[in-house]
Specification:
The chain has about 160 residues and is of the alpha/beta class. It has a domain at about 5-70 and about 95-130 and about 150-160. Helix content is about 40%, strand content about 10%. The chain is built from 6 helices and 4 strands. It is globular.
């Protein structure tokens, strides 16, 4: 289950997905929409005053899509104590939910567009960014496995 960030000003919503800008969007939303709430040591989405959870019936909901291979590498770096083989066997963040989203935003170059769609100021600050040096290099066989695991995400990412 994933949090949905619904803007109280635009009523637009984005499904927050791990390693795809969710921390940056949620942190900005907390500062703009709920400035009186103090965020301490957790993902800012856990402090949303009204929890809204994903179902494919969520109205006016978009999703941020990241290059799935890069999302996987970021996931590995985010949980460095877990060996790469375990990440490949059972990724802690699986494929994206499939649904009837009204918009798709590419993480790589449209995260600010997603923020604007929610009524947040831009440029969006980078929160919880992963050090590129901490991301594992994948062998061709490992990358092929990642592409197999995230085949639907690869197709979606390539389509937008």
């Amino acid at each position: 289950m994933s949090n949905v960030l619904r803007s109280p000003t635009t009523n637009n919503a984005i499904l927050l997905t791990p390693r795809s800008g969710s921390h940056s969007l949620a942190a900005a939303a907390m500062q703009v929409f709920w400035p009186g709430v103090e965020v301490v040591d957790n993902h800012p989405a856990s402090y949303f005053p009204n929890d809204e959870w994903w179902s494919d019936a969520t109205d006016n909901c978009a999703i941020v899509v990241r290059n799935p291979v890069e999302r996987f590498r970021s996931m590995c770096a985010h949980v460095p104590g877990r060996p790469l083989e375990e990440h490949l066997a059972n990724p802690i963040y699986g494929p994206l939910p499939q649904g009837n989203f009204v918009r798709y935003f590419r993480f790589e170059d449209q995260l600010n567009d997603a923020a604007e769609w929610l009524g947040l100021p831009t440029p969006l600050p980078h929160e919880d960014a992963t050090d590129p040096a901490a991301k594992p290099a994948l062998t061709p066989d490992q990358e092929a496995l990642v592409r197999q695991i995230f085949a639907a995400d690869i197709a979606l990412w390539e389509s937008i």
